[in-house]
Design a protein that fits this description.
235 residues, disordered N terminus, 6 helices, two-stranded antiparallel ribbon, 8-stranded mixed beta sheet, alpha/beta
Amino acid sequence: MIFAFAAVLAVEAAASAAFGQRTVTFPLVSGADSGAGMVAGDVYGGWTKGLTRALILAHGGRFDAQSWKPQAEAFAEAGFVVLAVHFRGDRLNADGSPDAEGSDAQNADDVMAAVAYLHRSGVKTVYAVGGSLGGSAVGDADAMSAPGSIERVVFLGSDGGDEPEKLSGRKLFIVAREDRSGEGLRLPGIEAHYKRAPEPKRLVVVKGSAHAQYLFATSEGPRVMKEILGFLEEK
């Protein structure tokens, strides 16, 4: 099975540009809440023999996998194979805007499927970035996985899921100081989960009120990308 996945990826890589985008599908991990099923994702970056690291991107509730394209291309140029997950619950509203309607458990299962797919395909180290709803999916997946399955996690405007004390590896929380939900400022809740998460960890509070992936379209966008890339690259 490993060789079959590797062969498929080799064909895909040969047929696309070094940082080109292509779609792959992979199965849910056995025992996932929805039983048998497939998850899709967009892959960016060249797949080469001896690949050591890959980055999963999990989008927020008002975004979709395609929303990561500018950041995914930048991460691919930095040397990562990038997998932007399509949650199975992703839908389009009547006006054509994206909306993620899957349950928290389904979204976490989708991230776990992406992690398993990458490891099964020969990747040695997997990192993950999640925005808002996607951050909860990444955190819940990490908490349910064996330590080391996800080496580093980044949470954008997210508290990191329901069980931050079970997070493993290195953690980076990024949030805008004035980011608000209908219930008020998000920072206090994120700080509470940050305190519960084990070391090593870091919290970065940036200027403004933009939520999660919306940060990339603000003046803080370059700083956010620099923080993420620095965190992923640090020894």
